[in-house]
Amino acid sequence: MITYEFLQNYWWFIISLLGGLLVFLLFVQGGQSMINSISKTEDEKKLVINALGRKWEYTFTTLVTFGGAFFASFPLFYATSFGGAYWVWMLLLFSFVVQAVSYEFQSKPGNVFGPKTYRSFLFFNGIIGTFVLGVAVATFFTGSEFTINKVNLVSFGTAGNVMSGWDNPLHGLEALGNLRNWCLGLAVLFLARTMASLFFVNRLDHDVLHKRSRKYTLYNGVPFVVFFLAFLIWTLVSDGYAVNPDTQEVYMEPYKYLNNFIQMPVVLVLFLLGVVSVLWGIFGTVVNKSFNKGIWFAGAGTVVAVTMLLLVAGYNHTAYYPSYTNLQSSLTVQNSSSSEFTLTAMSIVSLLVPFVFAYIVYAWRALEGKKLKLEDLNKDGHAY
Fold first, then answer.
1. Which spans in the chain are helix H?
2. Which of 200, 238, 265, 182 is nearest to 49 (CA)?
3. How far apart are CA 170 and CA 174, in angstroms?
4. How confident is the model at residue 152 (pLDDT cuts 50, 70, 90)?
5. Exposure of 356 by Cβ count < 10 A (0-12 exposed, 13-18 middle, 19+ buried)?
6. Residues 242, 251 contacting (CB under 8 angstroms)
7. Which one-letter DSSP state was computed for residue 204?
8. For labelling, which of 148, 258, 349, 358 has a CA lying 20 to 30 Å from the CA of 325?
């Protein structure tokens, strides 16, 4: 029998999977952050931009789906985080809005700003979008500053009577004061740039960009590994936000996230396999000049590793969105989810997701039957 607890855990898995897919698709942002460094001539820039331009909608759509699914399945998180840490989310969303505008208008007739202006917007999205998203996810492990009272509506100054309130006037920007958050933010940024380099190796029919992309795979892969290991090790040896299954009391447990991995061996094995797959994609591309499938190894590994990392943040009696100013306000899979009826209805609809995913794979393969070269841009009626 499907229980309420099963539905809650099922939807945390869906959220985690969407998060993994989103991080993989950030290779578009990673490529945008390298437009002026990996490409030197105008033709090279156009080739890079058009290769990324055929994929930016996947990332944007996944971001919207991720946010929508989070809102529907765990509305208290949405209300608390988006209503409290709004400067972080507004900065993130603004960077994605200017990305969409840039792709659609940079090559339009009568563009008074010129392509350089829109390319600077793409660079902004490439740097800020990836870094801020990494910082936001890091707070799932490091904590935030908020207070929730679900029993009685409480007053928070001029905000009036609300259920949750943010305890810091910076409204999310205070997360930038945590060095561990910076580690994950920079790890996501360099991972996106690494996967973009792997994508260019796989997609572009251009010898100069090929050679340059292999070099940039190494240049970005090394700092990614350094920052990711720094965040991972720091998190595993730190205290974590545990939940008493009987009383639902939140308390600090030494090595909580390490214990989660140990107590969920399947998650641990899949996480390690994901990490190894990412490293193999990077290593193979750097050392083997004929190897061009690195994006698929790194991409699949990223999806699996990020999914497992998010499961560790929410499963095994763990507060996935902790408050370090008020421990008992921390959000868990159990205390922040939608009703059983809502989750049941959503679960039925979610059965269609594999068909949608299969269509995306089919469309991707159909549109990418051959590598992209400069001559193709002249034939394409929708070149960016």
1. 4-25, 27-32, 35-38, 42-53, 56-73, 75-77, 83-84, 86-105, 115-124, 130-142, 179-203, 207-236, 256-263, 265-287, 294-314, 340-350, 353-367, 374-379
2. 200
3. 6
4. low
5. exposed
6. yes
7. B
8. 258
Q: Which residue has the tokens 């561990």?
A: 180
Q: What is the pLDDT of residues 72-130, one digit of tens each?
A: 999 999 889 988 899 999 999 999 999 988 888 877 776 777 778 889 999 999 999 99
Q: How far apart are CA 329 and CA 277, in angstroms?
A: 37
Read off the tokens for 374: 């400069």
Q: Are 18 and 62 in contact (CB under 8 A)?
A: yes
Three-state DSSP state, 36: helix
Q: Whole-angstrom distance between the N-terminal and C-terminal Cα of the chain?
A: 52
Q: Are 118 and 101 in contact (CB under 8 A)?
A: yes
**Contact status, residue 208 vs residue 48, Cβ threshold 8 Å:** no
Which residue type sits at 184? L
Taking a C-beta distance cutoff of 8 angstroms, is the pair 192, 126 a contact? yes
Within 8 A by CB and 6+ apart from 190, the residues are: 220, 221, 223, 224, 227
DSSP 63: H
- Residue 364's pLDDT is 75
Residue-wise DSSP of 106-161: TTSTT-SS-HHHHHHHHHHIIIIIHHHHHHHHHHHHH-B-EEE-SSS-EE-GGG-E
pLDDT computed for residue 372 by the predictor? 76
Helix 130-142 to helix 179-203 angle (10° resolution) is 140
Packing angle of the helix pair 42-53, 115-124 (nearest 10 deg): 50
User: What is the Cα–Cα distance from 383 to 380, expressed in whole angstroms?
Assistant: 6
Predicted model pTM: 0.93
Q: What are the residues facing 242 on neighbouring strands?
A: 251, 318
Which residues touch 384 (CB under 8 Å, ≥6 apart)? 46, 49, 50, 53, 103, 106, 107
Q: How many CB atoms lie within 10 A of CB 326?
A: 16
Closest CA to 99 of 25, 149, 47: 25
Look up residue 215 and give its two tokens: 């070099």
